[in-house]
# Entry
Amino acid sequence: MLVKVSVIGLGYLGATHAVAMAELGHEVVGIEPDVRKLEALKSGILPFHEPGLDQALHNVLASGRITFQGEHDENSASADLHFICVGTPQLKGSDAADTSYVLAAAKALAPHLKPSAVVAGKSTVPVGTAAELQRVMTEVAGFDVNLVWNPEFLREGTALEDSLRPDRIVVGAWNDHSVDVIREAYAPILNLGTPFLVLDVPTAELVKVAANAFLATKISFINAMAEVAEVSGADAVALARAIGYDERIGNKFLRTGIGFGGGCLPKDIRGFMARAEELGVGSAVEFLKDVDAINLRRRDRVVALAKSELGDVRGKRVTMLGISFKPDSDDLRDSPALEISQRLAKEGAVVTVHDPVSLSALAERDPSLGREAELIEAVREADLVILGTEWKQYKVADPVLLGSLVATKTVIDGRNVLDVDSWQQAGWKVIALGRTIKNA
Ligand code: UGA
# Structure
C-alpha cells in the first residue's frame, strides 16, 4: 500500500531519501527551510553532485509524486509517515554531535502530526536522542507520538542505489503500529528479500554509529599497517589484498591512502566517543581516538613527503588532483585532499586544484586555492603532482602526456590507484602511501 510521506531536511540524506520514496511510488512532501536549496530542488536542480539522482529527481517531479515546501502546512500534516533527515554536525569546540537541528525539527513537526502518524528519525544521533525527541514531541502534540529510529546507510556517490537496494533496513520501535507503517513504506524493497531488522530504539540508534565506527576502524587499521610498511620496506596494498582473502576479514574498506574524510565517519567517531564519555563508558571506545589520530597522521605524511621532495616549498607549484573527500561527490567536508592543499598553501606553495566536479564547491569553501578545470592546464609547470581523490579520469590519464607538461615528474599517489609501472616508464618518480617504491 502507498503511504503519504514527508521528508524533513533536504540535505544529502533527505533529498536522496525523498526521491527514493517517490521512486517507490509514495506521495512525498519535501520540507526544507533553506530557500536556496528549496528553490533548486523545486526546479529540478540538485544542490550537490550525486550521480543518477538528478535524473531521478527530474522523473519524480514530472510524475507529480513529489513536491517541496519551506515549512509544515495542512498538506504535510496529512502525511502518514514523517522522516527527520536533518544534519547532526560536530559541535564547534567539541567532539560531540550537535543535535539541536533534530530537536528543532521534531518540535516544529509535533503540532502538525495526526495521532496515527509515525515519525521516523534517520539522522545519525547519539544513543538516547530518540527518547528525548519522543518526550518533547508528545508534550507538544498532547498525545503519545509514534517515533521510530530508522538509520540510513547510504554512501555518497551511490546514494540512490544504496537507498533503493540497501543491505538491510533497520527500525527501532516502541510499538507495532509504527513498524507496520515503516514496513508499508519500504514494501517494494522488502519484497526483494531485503533483511528487515526490528530492534529496540537505542540499539537502532547505535547500529548507525557502530557501523561507521567499524568502517573507520577498518580504514585506520590498514593505514596503521601502512605506517609500518613504510619503514620496513613492505607494501600495504599487497598486504591488504593478502589479508582480505580471509573471509573473516574481507577485502572491502581496506584501501590504504590519505584516509577517510566526509561529513560522516570523522564526526561520527568523535560524537560516539563524546556520548560514551557522557554515559560513563568513555574507555570502551577510547580506541577510536587512535582511529582518528592514525587517519589524521596520513595527512601529515603527505605534507612531509611533499616537503622532502620540494625542499623549501615557498613558490613551488603543486597540483592537487581531486579535492572532494571521495570520487563521484563534490563534498569537501573534512576532505583529506583539501586539508593537505591548504597546509601546503599556508607554507607558501602555489597550489592548483583540479577536480571534475568540485571546483565551484571549492570556490565557495576556500577561494584562495588555485582552481583549474582542464587537467592539462592544471599540471602545467608543476613541481609536484599529488593525487588526492581517486576520480576515474586520473587512473586512466596518460603519464607520458602529463609528464611532458610538468616541471618535475614527481607524483604522490595518495590513493594507490596509479599504475606504477606505466608512470615510471614515462619517467615519473612515483611515491605512494604505505608502499616502498623503487624509483630509478
Ligand atoms: C559513510 C558510510 O560508508 C555509509 O554507510 C553511511 O551511511 C554514511 O557514511 C553516513 O553516515 O551517512 P560516505 O561518508 O558517503 O559513507 O563514504 P564512504 O564510502 O564510507 O567513504 C568515507 C571515506 O573513507 C572517504 O574519504 C573514502 O575515500 C575513505 N575510504 C573508504 C578509504 O580511505 N579507504 C577505504 O577502503 C574506503
User: Anything to note?
Assistant: The pocket of uridine-5'-diphosphate-glucuronic acid is lined by residues 124, 152-156, 212, 215, 219, 253-255, 257, 259-262, 264-265, 325-326 (CB under 6 Å). The mean pLDDT is 97. The CA atoms of residues 253 and 316 lie 34 Å apart. DSSP finds 19 helices and 14 strands in the chain.
